UniProtKB/TrEMBL annotation:
It holds the Pfam family 2OG-FeII_Oxy. Residues 222-326 form the Fe2OG dioxygenase domain. This is Clavaminate synthase-like protein. One of its GO terms (molecular function) is metal ion binding. Keywords: Iron, Metal-binding, Oxidoreductase. The keyword Iron applies.
Length: 368
């Protein structure tokens, strides 16, 4: 093959801008412009959680499977996860009803940036990738509250002040929008995800050769945000009027994310060859991905992988992301099993809250 032919066949690349934690607030990667293909089961495996509560041998085998996926693509599907189908359906029905409400009703529970970024966010109000146009998705999100957490029921007076001070006072996001079951269905779903995430973190500890309860101390009041996403379908709009990317390229910031997605491709993951691959919805599963904070705690052993969403079709797409982090008031350093003489800790201890604040500050600086 001649040099010229090689050039012609080389896939074109484009510069992809990403938020970072350090000055100047963003970095870039050269990524392929080739159309995405579906992921293979080796790239994003489906992991059966049946043995999550089983005997030690079963838990260790499961932990090894999860660790392998977390160290390679940073993404995996989970099945037999224990979240009841009725809980998923209940929350999704409310999500759909909410997004179909008239805009002025949704604006009644919109995020007030002076207080927090929780509540409703309309299309075009956020931009996660500084190199492109604002995201066109709509979303509604809420955060951890001890009063929603079954572990603290009846003992709310015991919640320490250094926990409550990190919790925004934004109950207006639950103002009446005329959907009597909106809050209860969403909180029930959030509670199931919370319990699943706490258990997954125990399995991750096993996989990292740590005591199973190693992280329990930092999951008592964990950062646990639930985001409902809505990506309107194109319907019969001509191609030239369609948006480019609905949720721009980013990594998730905390420990792990549990993602439910409706039918239709949308979620794309950047593989190690810098090519986008689809993680199509698989009925009965959630997609799990590792966040930046866990990557940091494992000295970059587990991967927080770049992903984005493109609305790929005629029909509306929905997704629900549960972002699980550690207690916002606890500093966490690199875990001892991810440090060796030749690979010393690359990062200083930090709290999940500090890390997020750092990225937001870098973002603000890059936008001002
Ligand atoms: O909608 C999706 O499939 C992914 C959403 C996502 O990545 C996020 O909300 O961080
Ligand atoms: Fe994400």
């Amino acid at each position: 093959m001649t040099a010229i032919e090689t050039q012609q066949h080389e896939p074109a690349t484009t510069k992809l801008w990403l938020r970072s934690y350090e000055d100047p607030g963003f970095i870039y990667r050269h990524v392929s412009t080739r159309s995405p293909r579906d992921c293979t089961p080796e790239e994003i495996p489906v992991i059966d959680l049946t043995h999550m509560f089983g005997d030690v041998a079963g838990r260790q085998k499961l932990a090894a499977e999860i660790l392998h996926a977390a160290e390679t693509s940073g993404f995996f599907y989970i099945k037999s996860h224990g979240v009841p189908e009725a809980t998923i359906t209940g929350s999704q029905e409310e999500a759909k009803k909410f997004f179909y409400l008239p805009e002025e009703v949704k604006l009644g529970v919109k995020a007030d940036p002076a207080v927090s970024f929780y509540g409703y966010q309309g299309p075009g109000t956020r931009r996660v990738d500084p190199g492109t146009a604002p995201d066109t998705r709509e979303s509604f999100n809420f955060h951890y509250q001890p009063k929603f957490d079954p572990v603290h029921q009846g003992r709310l007076a015991d919640v320490p002040k250094d926990v409550t001070q990190h919790i925004p006072n934004d109950d207006y996001i639950w103002n009446d929008v005329g959907l009597p079951k909106f809050q209860s269905e969403l909180v029930a779903y959030w509670q199931s995800c919370l319990s699943l995430a706490r258990q997954l973190v125990r399995i991750l500890a096993v996989g990292l050769d740590l005591p199973e309860d190693y992280f329990d101390r930092v999951t008592t009041y964990p950062g646990s945000d639930l985001t409902l996403n809505f990506y309107p379908g194109y319907g019969d709009k001509p191609v030239e009027e369609r948006g480019e990317v609905e949720l721009n390229a980013h990594t998730d910031m905390q420990i792990l994310t549990l993602l439910w997605q409706s039918e239709g491709r949308g979620l794309q993951i950047l593989n190690t060859e810098n090519e986008w691959i689809f993680a199509p919805p698989i009925p009965g599963t959630f997609v799990v991905n590792i966040g930046d904070f866990l990557m940091r705690l494992t000295n970059d052993r587990l991967k927080s992988t770049i992903h984005r969403v493109k609305q790929n079709g005629k029909f509306d797409r929905y997704s629900t992301a549960f972002f699980f982090g550690f207690n916002f008031n606890e500093k966490c350093g690199v875990v001892p099993t991810c440090v060796t003489e030749s690979m010393p800790a690359k990062y200083q201890p930090v709290t999940c809250g500090e890390l997020i604040a750092k990225r937001l500050a870098a973002v603000q600086q890059s936008e001002s």
